[in-house]
Fold this sequence. Notes:
The chain is an alpha/beta fold.
Amino acid sequence: MHTKLPRVYYFINKFDKNNINKLNKNIALIYRNYNKNVDKSLIIQIKKYCKLKKRKFFLSNNFKLAFKLGLDGVYLPSFNNDLKHINFPKKKNFFIIGSAHNNKEIKRKELQKVDLIFIASLFNKKKTYLGLNKFKLLTKLTKKKIIALGGINKNNLKKINLLSVYGYSGINLFNK
């Protein structure tokens, strides 16, 4: 079937080798920068680096480019409702992962045939804040593997063990 999906994901919006080198090699990278157009040469540079370091690399919100460049997969944010990628032939070891904040978005990610779903926001008290109880309820609405997202830090990382999740992801958790 597939190569095993990583359990830990780190969202980046710039390529900082020094910070990435400090990470465990089992942590996958997701490049997302919604403030500017995707720089294809930068994505190729990150891909080569990740291949050299044996690290999984996903591109956010650009299925065609991730597929064309032979990346490990694509990350579909909660606002991406597109289903066009379903018409592409499924490549072995190319993963589709996506995020959701509620039941409707979880069902949309299932229609998009994602391999796992990031559910947010677990701890980050913003508009999409769920908390532990609502988070647990949402995880029961799908049979897909779940990644916890949102406000995860060293202080609340142990609480992740209380949840039936496949893994976790973050931004600030990995920033040194």
